[in-house]
Amino acid sequence: MLSYNAGRFSLTVPFCFPEYVTPAIKKISKKEKIELNVNSGVANGILCKATSHPLKEIRRHEGKFSFLYEAEIFKWSNTDFRFSYSVSSGNIFGGILLQSLYDYDQSDMFCIYLFPGSEQNRKVFKKEVVFVVDISESMQGRPLESTKSAISAALSKLSPEDSFNIIAFSNEAFQFSTSMELASKDAIERATAWISMKYTVGGSTNLFIPLEKAADMLSNTRGSIPMIFLVTDGSVEDERNICHWMQKRLTNQGVLCPSIHTFGIGSFCNHYFLRMLAMIGRGEYGAAFDLDSIEVQMNKLFSKGLSTVLANITIDAFDDCEEIEVYSSRIPDLSLESPLTIYGRYQGSFPDNLKVKGILGDLSSFTMDLKIRRAKDIPLDSVLARRQIDLLTAQAWFSENKRLEEKVAKLSIQTCNISEYTRMTLLEKNIMKHFGAWKKKGDPQKIVESGPPEMILLQRLSVGFGDQIATAENIRPGSQEPELPEVAKIFIKTTSNYFGGICNRCCCMGCIRCCSKMNNQCATTLTQLCTALACIGCLHCCSESCCPNQDD
Questions:
Q1: Where is each VWFA domain found (predicted)?
Q2: Residue 496 confidence (pLDDT) above 50
Q3: Region of poorest pLDDT, from 10-14, 15-19, 100-104, 519-523
């Protein structure tokens, strides 16, 4: 897993496995070898910061560098492999990567990346923040307690000149204060006590009222950046109307209109609605599909939003060129916590000169020229496929556009990524052996197909568009998941270290459900296979960080 924090990219490859997974080998000398290849996507200024193993640099050229570790050992390593590097620039910088494609729509791909720089003293925006929190009965227990802890941590990061408010909602809205409060020590203590005393409330979920109240509170913001953080675990009927209303309101509100950051808990909320609402509001979307990761993932979202250093970002050529398609309708703000990537497709020739513009934390204007580079050995289409499908699906849901749905389906098939508009199938061929005389020398057995293959349609592995019935009945996230049999538990325990870092990027519950149908022999075989794949991955790690997301 490649992550970004405090100006560093960090790669982690698990090496810790349970004793019953590691092959039992006599105490003889063995060779342990790790080869690491990094393609940063940046021409120069790469600084290696730390590593868990004594790596030796064997080559370096224009943003690419390779390392090698070899050692004679008697016991396999149980120390996770860690490697970190930074891009040495104190100021905001970026560039453009282009990739030529030969696929279904005859277009090529571009990726614009912006780094916040390593200057930790860079001025962030003065903020006016409203937390909008779902306290319907389904949030009872871990979801609400984790949310309270994350909000308390976020309040402690506010500066005294910032202001805030909290709105808790179910079928009605409850405000911490009737107006915005300065983030003084006393106000934060009162807010922390207020949110800690909030309990879940029965009834339906009404999302429009608290969002309208939050937008009204931030309508007269001056000299600061307004923000809304929305946390929910449910789905409501008027989600498209909410998006249309917010889109119209933000368009008419001026330069520093509120940025909207959304967070979904569990599988009952409509994650594409939350993603679309964040896209409209130039914000970020986050999610947690299991109870244990709620607080960690929510803290990441809050930290990212609260450390904005460049807002109202625009690219001049995007408005003038009809041949460029940008997958995000509004460009998110740049945060100190993570680089920003803007990507899409273009036809014909790409503009020779592009300028990025925005507003800095001191409210001064920012302009920067972007250099173009051909990504000859960086597969942008593969690196960005998952994010591309998710953004296009959100837009297809919002606009109810059948052509966009077909585009997502084609992209899903081409890149082998699951989507809401495709299904995975198994083809079972009926094979029989035919015995007969042969004129030529050879095996007298001939294998022939007895008929057309049988197609087995697999269960959907995508997240879906929310469950309004479960929301109305206040069913808690994860409460309807069946108890896993022992076979599935063994598989999860065995592979948890290796796949733990990526479980929020793919639908692991689909894999777990699949495992629940296995017999013991199949589970043992699959465990051995995953162990082998993990070892192979550890032997040869290739990190391509040209298009980093907050966790990608």
A1: 128-306
A2: no
A3: 519-523
CA 462 to chain CA centroid, Å, is 15
Lookup: tokens for 22:
């590691």
With bands split at pLDDT 50, 70 and 90, how would you rate the model's confidence at 451? low
- The answer to whether the pTM exceeds 0.90 is no
233 backbone dihedrals φ, ψ, rounded to 5°: -125, 10
Rounded to whole angstroms, the Cα distance separating 375 from 341 reads: 15
3-class state of residue 511 by DSSP: helix
Q: Which two tokens stand for residue 513?
A: 């459900």
Rounded to whole angstroms, the Cα distance separating 228 from 197 reads: 22
Q: Are the C-beta atoms of residues 103 and 414 closer than 8 Å to each other?
A: yes
Per-residue HEC secondary structure of 479-510 comes to: CCCCCCCHHHHHHHHHHHHHHHHHCCCCCHHH
Quick one: which H or E segment has residue 354?
A: strand 354-360
Q: What contacts 24+ positions apart, CB below 8 Å, involve 393-399?
A: 393/272, 393/419, 393/420, 393/421, 394/272, 394/273, 394/275, 394/276, 394/279, 395/276, 395/279, 395/329, 396/421, 397/270, 397/272, 397/273, 397/276, 397/465, 398/240, 398/243, 398/272, 398/273, 398/276
CB 275 within 8 A of CB 239: no
d(CA 135, CA 174): 10
Tell me the Cα Rg of the chain: 26
At 339-393, the pLDDT tens digits run 899 988 888 888 888 889 999 988 899 999 988 888 777 888 888 899 999 999 9
Which candidate, 315, 299, 306, places its Cα nearest to that of 283? 306
Cα–Cα dist 25/21, whole Å: 12
Grade residue 552 by pLDDT with cuts at 50, 70 and 90.
very low
Residues 194-204 have pLDDT tens digits of 998 887 777 77
Q: How far is CA 177 from CA 39, 52, 131, in A?
A: 50, 49, 12
- Counting every residue written for the chain, the total comes to 552
User: pLDDT-derived band of residue 10, with 50, 70 and 90 as boundaries?
Assistant: confident
